[in-house]
Amino acid sequence: PKASIRAILETYNLDDGDIIRVDNGQYDLTTNIDILNEDSGVVIEGPNWAGGRAVINRGNTSSTSYVFQLTNADDITLRNLAITGGYYGIYAANAGGSDGLVVERSELTGNAQDGAYIAGGNLDALFSDNEAYANGGSGIQVEGGGGRLVGNHAWGNAYGLWASTGGSSVDRIEVQGNVAHDNSVDGIGVQFRVLVDGNTVYG
Known about the structure:
The protein is mainly β. Helices cover 3% and strands 42% of the residues.
């Protein structure tokens, strides 16, 4: 056991499918959790029992402060986590090459800009069954081709969900079966090649 996710990533040579289990509690960060190419395939998951909550708090909302920062890291899974207190909760920079990210059954809340921002050049991200609320920008924003936003609940943000591709040269993004309400600008905003189907938007 280690005191932090970052310490595990930096200490061990983790392989595809290895799981970092985060116990119930609050974990205050002093720096970003950097997830790099050598961490590809790793699963980071919090408790899955009723009342269990692993809160990962960046505690710094300056523009370069994120909870999780992905750089050329493929097939990462974040599950059952509460991700808060950064400029972005989850960030993958433009052309960052972090493909196949999965974020599921997590909370994205209390971040100065977006709960998650996955820029273009990070393909095939899946956000499924998350609660995205009380972020200053979008609850979840995905711009990488092939992304999917499915079954999420987004409220109390400026934009609940935002999806945009870079044009016709990338696979479309799919936004399906989400609920977005009481967001101050738009419940769901999209540009270019995006399929929007079966969502509920109100307030």
